[in-house]
Design goal:
18% strand; 6 strands; Phosphoglycerate mutase; six-stranded mixed beta sheet; alpha/beta
């Protein structure tokens, strides 16, 4: 039996204001940088430092993740599959503008995002399958280690739902509040048959 600890960290506040922020590549605000640095500072103490740092390639995650890894001497890698969901034509637009022209479609999407993808975007099924493949690939390389994964709210919500054994629950995406720079931890126990048993630590 072997245990892997995955520390999930959401990026901080971003530039652009109140927009639907999927794969549009926007930088952190100064406040967002401080939010992440505050959490990362807590990972510098003995026993808390990750063995490896992984990050979404989007700059709101990658810039500070790489900087942290360099200062700690931890191996660092960008993992493209841990990007946020691609909202297609909706990506990067303000919610005010979206609701002026796409209110019905947006309401239907939030109610059950598995029924229809955003126009020219990624379906929820494809998004979750992408995260699942990346999750398994991560353990092929880093099983038994303490991993810091700097990523996005949608990715974290899916992995938290996975840890709790919940599938296709819209509330995880619409009602689970994840503030900027939110941190959660998932312990993964691997047995001799390759099965994984997940425990979620939230609010530490």
């Amino acid at each position: 039996m072997q245990t892997t600890r995955v520390i999930l960290l959401r990026h901080g506040e971003c530039e652009g204001g109140n927009i639907l922020r999927g794969q549009i590549d926007v930088a952190l605000t100064e406040q967002g940088k401080r939010q992440m640095q505050s959490v990362l500072c807590g990972l510098k103490s003995p026993g808390s430092t990750p063995d490896v740092v992984l990050s979404s390639p989007l700059i709101r995650c990658a810039n500070l993740a790489e900087e942290f890894a360099l200062t700690q001497g931890s191996p660092y890698a960008v993992e493209a599959a841990f990007k946020e969901l691609n909202f297609g034509d909706w990506d990067g637009q303000t919610f005010d503008v979206l609701y002026q022209s796409h209110a019905a479609a947006l309401d239907a999407y939030w109610a059950n995002p598995w029924l229809a993808a955003p126009p020219n975007g990624e379906s929820m099924q494809d998004f979750e399958a992408r995260i699942e493949r990346a999750w398994q690939a991560m353990f092929e390389q880093h099983q038994g280690k303490q991993i810091l994964l700097v990523t996005h709210g949608g990715v974290m919500r899916h992995l938290m739902a996975k840890a709790l054994g919940v599938k296709q629950a819209a509330g995880f995406y619409t009602s689970l509040q994840l503030p900027y720079a939110a941190k959660a931890e998932i312990d993964v126990l691997h047995d001799e048959n390759g099965q994984q048993f997940l425990t979620l630590h939230w609010g530490k």
